[in-house]
Amino acid sequence: MLFPDYRPRRLRKNEAFRSLIRETRLSPSQLIYPLFIIPGKNKREEITSMPGVHRVTVDLLEKEAEECLKLGINGVILFGLPDKKDGMGSGAHKKDGIIQTAIKELKKNTPDLLVITDVCLCEYTDHGHCGCIINREVDNDATLEILAKTALSHAQAGADMVAPSDMMDGRVGEIRMTLDENSFDHIPIMSYAVKYASSFYGPFREAADCVPQFGDRRSYQMDPANSREALREATLDVEEGADILMVKPAVAYLDIISKLRDEFDLPIAAYHVSGEYAMIKAAAEKGWIDGERVMAETLLSIRRAGADIIITYFAKEMAKLLKNSR
Ligand code: PBG
């Protein structure tokens, strides 16, 4: 006997066999599409470093939302570019702010689409940091109140879920308490529980105009070298009331996704971030890789690592591909 009894190739013979034993699948319903919203009317501008991704005005949101629903994508996450910024990021919780207006517009026209909001101050502060600055430092506890106010304003406008991405200590608990006190106990929190101080956010910071004007985010976002610390961060967020745990970025942190999957029973989300998207797009444009196949393989790897939900700029493209290959 030259071979062992088990021959793995038996079940790889054709697509029918392969698909029969496939362990991981990707469905449009697992994808969340990020939307960048700008002030003004009838504007749709492509983001240079993110080909295929646009910043749009509120009046064009209905079209975006309908396209998502038609493709089977159930949720979007919103990022706003306000017309004015200040030191405290007060535009983040304005009743008629850019995000609050966008939420209302979306819920009015496409009520079935889940509207998730990114809760952070960096797009609204003139210094570009995710919290308010006291003595040239991002002050944790002073920021908490502003974040909670922001999350509440999103819920009041009709958001289905809030997603704090600021990485201040204790923000999930503070947001949970404020939502509960205001009768929004039914609104879930998807926490950016494990968010690394990553260089993969470059294109996003250009898109959302939130480059820090001094220093960097390493005093609040996690050190890419740390893995055990991810479990501590996630544990804290679970104790504070998070409903979904997110890991960000995704591909360079598949080990972290897998670890969280093993340790927690909450749904896990992964954010395939702007730089991860841009790299695939750039190499594909040069003809060095097959962009579509690398996209599919990449998103599948994030699912295989253990993510239930993927936030990705590829959401529409991937959903189209899934639809056509059915
Ligand atoms: C806001 C925020 C960022 C991203 C999502 N929310 C930027 C940052 O933390 O610097 C990055 C998303 C991406 O790169 O696609 N804090």
Short account of what is shown:
The chain has 326 residues and is of the alpha/beta class.
Number of DSSP strand runs = 12
CATH topological fold name: TIM Barrel
The CATH homologous superfamily name equals Aldolase class I
- Total count of domains: 1
Can you identify the CATH class?
A: Alpha Beta
Question: What do the pLDDT scores average to?
Answer: 97
Largest sheet: 10 strands, mixed
Please explain how this structure is put together:
The protein is built from eleven helices and twelve strands. The chain has helices at 15-20, 61-71, 98-109, 140-157, 171-181, 202-207, 228-240, 254-263, 274-285, 291-305, 315-325; strands spanning 31-38, 44-47, 50-57, 75-80, 114-119, 133-134, 137-138, 161-164, 190-195, 244-248, 268-272, 309-312. The chain is α/β, with parallel strands linked by helices and 326 residues long. It has one domain (24-324): TIM Barrel (Alpha-Beta Barrel), CATH 3.20.20.70. It is globular, with a radius of gyration of 20 Å. The strands form two sheets. Strands 1, 2, 3, 4, 5, 8, 9, 10, 11 and 12 form a ten-stranded mixed sheet that branches. A two-stranded antiparallel ribbon has the order 6-7. Helix 3 (98-109) packs parallel to helix 4, helix 4 packs across helix 5 (171-181) and helix 9 (274-285) runs antiparallel to helix 10.
Topology:
Blueprint: H1 15-20, E1 31-38, E2 44-47, E3 50-57, H2 61-71, E4 75-80, H3 98-109, E5 114-119, E6 133-134, E7 137-138, H4 140-157, E8 161-164, H5 171-181, E9 190-195, H6 202-207, H7 228-240, E10 244-248, H8 254-263, E11 268-272, H9 274-285, H10 291-305, E12 309-312, H11 315-325
Residues 118, 120, 122, 130, 165, 201, 204-205, 217, 273-274 line the site of ligand PBG.
